[in-house]
Amino acid sequence: MGKTTRLLPGEGTDKRGPDGYLGYLLRQAANGYRHRVETSLRETGLTQPQFAALTMLDAYPEHSSADLARIALLTPQTMSTILRNLENAALIRRHPHQEHGRKRRIELTDAGRQVLVRAKRLVYALETDLAEGFSEEEQRTVRRWLVAAGGRSLEGGATKP
Amino acid sequence: MGKTTRLLPGEGTDKRGPDGYLGYLLRQAANGYRHRVETSLRETGLTQPQFAALTMLDAYPEHSSADLARIALLTPQTMSTILRNLENAALIRRHPHQEHGRKRRIELTDAGRQVLVRAKRLVYALETDLAEGFSEEEQRTVRRWLVAAGGRSLEGGATKP
DNA sequence: TGCCCATTGTCAGAACTCTGATATTAATGT
DNA sequence: ACATTAATATCAGAGTTCTGACAATGGGCA
Fold first, then answer.
1. End-to-end CA separation in angstroms for chain A
2. What is the tens place of the pLDDT at every residue in A66-115?
3. Are B22 and A143 in contact (CB under 8 A)?
4. Domains of chain A (ranges plus CATH)?
5. Which of A16, A22, A150 has the CB atom closest to B127's CB atom?
6. Which nucleotides of chain C does any protein CB come within 7 A of?
């Protein structure tokens, strides 16, 4: 039996690499980047979605869970899950909204603010890696493509006239 | 009518849209595209990862679960989960490999082949949408960026010298 | 006033993805 | 021959994401 040395198809053979399907490359890119982010965030214990939620909450403290879901293009259930985990970790706090009966006000705790400061440094370093090797114009092309590819997916839209 | 109200911050205000962080845009793009793919695949009952796994198995019928995980840049556990669901749905079959004791040979069932034919038509239509509005050169830029962003994430690599 | 409906939030269940741990088998080294 | 290492596959548990279903609140309209 020879040692067929790692001839996995795909190095230049098939749909991998720069010749692959865009959808396939998109999924792998997102998986790979998330993996790198969470490895880097390991010491903070945050996941990529948790980091994104904390960042949004810090920027827009008035927003409800439903608001955040709309901003992030996620379903209310998904955002609810992420916030529940942040609350269990004592990084956010929720208390009943005075005027609006069902709404709840969300706040970062001190621990939440502290961990967010550390996490931002780690993630922004990776963010600059993401642009490395691409000109300003190329980056604009990439951004434009990403926005088009996402395509405001869950836009319940139509609002039925 | 209009109902242009939707004043959530982020239309042109902040980190959303084409000015947002690349990592953030990447996650949203992948989420949105996956959502569109699975909506389109609804009638087949397949998910995007299941579709990818079936496609790979059809192209490389000799490969084991571990091989597929390497090709797709996923962990063996993840690929194992996907294959288990495909097996429960009777779209693939696994029987013990003759020569190699622990390896298992994976095969598409007739149902698996049939569903894959239908799914390919649905997904490839979306794939062309993904390139619409971008020149050949711009598409090359996007592909190159996606490959760099993914960065062969889990490459256990180094193999400890 | 009282009913309809949109908004907000949650529970349940499924699939994907990771880390960590474990068992089994093959290949290798002394 | 025996021990070590590598590869394959799986179990367990956590977090993210969806669909589907439901309760509670608030506003609008007959």
1. 70
2. 999 999 999 999 999 999 999 999 999 998 776 666 788 999 999 999 99
3. yes
4. 47-140 (1.10.10.10)
5. A22
6. 6-13, 15-21, 24-28
